[in-house]
């Protein structure tokens, strides 16, 4: 057995058999030292990691460290990629960097058989105090590569890195600001993912995007997320790769097989600070949703957090050789990346980043001070590490694409208080849907522990399964055994 363990073959049981096996009957020895309470939901099956299938293993084998290094180094060598740097100089500035990413992705798209399209998404920002100093404003350009899904094209997953860079003074557009780790590394990840996935056929639509204007205020991703929202796009997961290039901490210790994955608890959409306009009070619907979240103990179960749990389940394996360190915060202390733009629009999103940041290498003018090298330089990057982060992303995106969509309309019914748990949800329309599983855990568990197969139904009642003591969710499963992220139920008080 390797250090990742071996996934067992899962046996699908009928609903009737599972509900007949209530936990009390399984405890013939009645051990006093058993940590699980005897009154609990049916055990079902222990949740195990989802192993990479054959095509995913091929995808992971195709990821090239050398190709990532070439792209990241090229981006760092444009001198500056500041939002207000030159858009016309062919060798230096944000315009040259955008053209490089656009043209390279167009080249990758040629191998897709027409499935991948690449576009520039440009909009104009006026002069903005503290952010955009040019009196004429500035054009902001995102590069967007989209692979159309073959089976469920209306379901979308997005992965980003931000193309712009900065110095100590965020408003200074001049060179030198290589931005190697922040965030040429993230753009290198999405470019390599696009190159590899262009040769494969995901079932759902995948978007690989290099967004602009992150450092000054998440401008590119904010515009992009709003455009998707206005179009009614069904984005079921978004990942920001921001500062994913270094494995060495500032004390010199390497942590080269771990990546942090940040996810919010209380949804951004239920906090007044992020309800447009900023600082506005919550609507009545938001107020009720927040109240119910608190009353039912759902602060740890946002859809973004379910997305993070999904990534850990599918991306921690010997093929990636990585540990996914789920951090239960929206982002690092007092900061935000482009995933927040998507969360603000109500989309589930999370942020990947290296385990230990060295602040002398971020947001700093390039200089030597008291013998210490400052600046975001290529020499501080670990390209083997970036390749492994790319593999984590690949596992997440492919597994999401091939699985059914996250169940929608999931409700836990409590018109009166009982020790039964009644769950309902909307029928999934995925063509290869096999059925559903009700998952559960004790409230102090970090992740879901047990799954109860319930068949292709849209409701289930679990007798003597007290919702006071356990958390419940629903996930979909297809005929090949791929499972969706878990959907955490909303409260219904209707009789």
| CATH overall fold name of the largest domain | Aminopeptidase
Strand line-up in the sheet with most strands? 2-3-5-4-6-9-7-8
Average pLDDT: 92
User: How far from one another are the termini?
Assistant: 51 Å
Q: Give, in order, the helices and strands.
A: HEHHHEEEHEHHEEHHEHEEEHEEEEEEE
How large is the share of residues in beta strands? 15-25%
As a percent range, the share of helical residues equals 25-40%
Total discrete domains? 2
β-strand number: 18
Radius of gyration over alpha carbons?
Answer: 23 Å
Structural classification: alpha/beta
Main sheet makeup: 8 strands, mixed
CATH level-four homologous superfamily name of the largest domain:
Zn peptidases
Q: Which residues sit in consecutive blocks of at least 5 with pLDDT less than 50?
A: 1-32
CATH class call of the largest domain: Alpha Beta
């Amino acid at each position: 057995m390797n250090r990742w363990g071996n996934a067992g073959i899962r046996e699908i049981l009928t609903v009737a058999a599972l509900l007949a096996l209530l936990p009390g009957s399984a405890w013939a020895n009645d051990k006093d030292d058993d940590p699980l309470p005897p009154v609990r939901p049916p055990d079902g099956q222990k949740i195990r990691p989802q192993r990479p299938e054959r095509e995913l293993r091929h995808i992971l084998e195709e990821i090239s460290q050398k190709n990532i290094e070439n792209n990241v180094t090229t981006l760092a060598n444009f001198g500056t990629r500041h939002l207000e740097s030159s858009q016309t100089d062919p060798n230096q500035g944000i315009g040259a960097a955008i053209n490089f990413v656009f043209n390279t992705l167009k080249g990758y798209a040629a191998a897709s058989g027409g499935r991948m399209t690449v576009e520039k998404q440009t909009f104009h920002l006026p002069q903005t105090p503290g952010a955009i100093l040019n009196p004429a404003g500035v054009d902001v350009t995102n590069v967007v590569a989209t692979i159309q899904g073959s089976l469920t094209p209306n379901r979308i997953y997005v992965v980003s890195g931000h193309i712009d860079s900065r110095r100590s003074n965020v408003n200074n557009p001049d060179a030198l600001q290589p931005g190697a780790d922040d965030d040429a590394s993230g753009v290198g990840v999405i470019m390599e993912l696009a190159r590899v996935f262009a040769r494969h056929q995901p079932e759902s639509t995948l978007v690989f995007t290099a967004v602009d204007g992150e450092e000054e205020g998440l401008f590119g991703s904010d515009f992009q997320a709003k455009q998707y929202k206005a179009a009614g796009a069904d984005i079921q997961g978004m990942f920001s790769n921001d500062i994913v290039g270094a494995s060495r901490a500032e004390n010199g210790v390497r942590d080269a097989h771990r990546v942090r994955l940040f996810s919010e608890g209380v949804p951004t959409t239920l906090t007044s600070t992020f309800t447009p306009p900023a600082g506005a009070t919550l609507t009545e619907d938001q107020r009720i949703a927040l109240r119910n979240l608190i009353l039912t103990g759902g602060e740890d179960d946002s859809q973004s957090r379910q997305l993070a749990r999904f990534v850990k389940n599918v991306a921690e394996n010997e093929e990636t050789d990585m540990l996914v360190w789920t951090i239960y915060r929206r982002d690092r202390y007092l900061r935000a990346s482009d995933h927040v733009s998507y969360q603000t629009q109500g989309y589930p999103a999370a942020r990947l980043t290296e385990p230990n940041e060295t602040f002398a290498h971020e947001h700093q003018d390039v200089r030597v001070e008291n013998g210490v090298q400052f600046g975001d330089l290529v020499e501080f990057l670990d390209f083997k590490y970036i390749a492994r982060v790319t593999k984590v992303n690949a596992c997440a995106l492919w597994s999401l694409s091939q699985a059914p969509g996250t169940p929608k309309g999931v409700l836990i019914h409590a018109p009166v208080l009982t020790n039964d748990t009644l769950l309902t949800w909307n029928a999934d329309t995925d063509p290869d849907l096999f059925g559903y599983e009700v998952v559960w855990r004790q409230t102090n568990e970090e992740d879901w522990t047990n799954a109860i197969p319930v068949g292709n139904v849209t409701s289930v009642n679990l007798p003597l399964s007290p919702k006071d003591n356990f958390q419940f969710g629903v996930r979909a499963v297809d005929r090949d055994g791929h499972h969706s992220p878990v959907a955490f139920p909303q409260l219904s008080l209707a009789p």
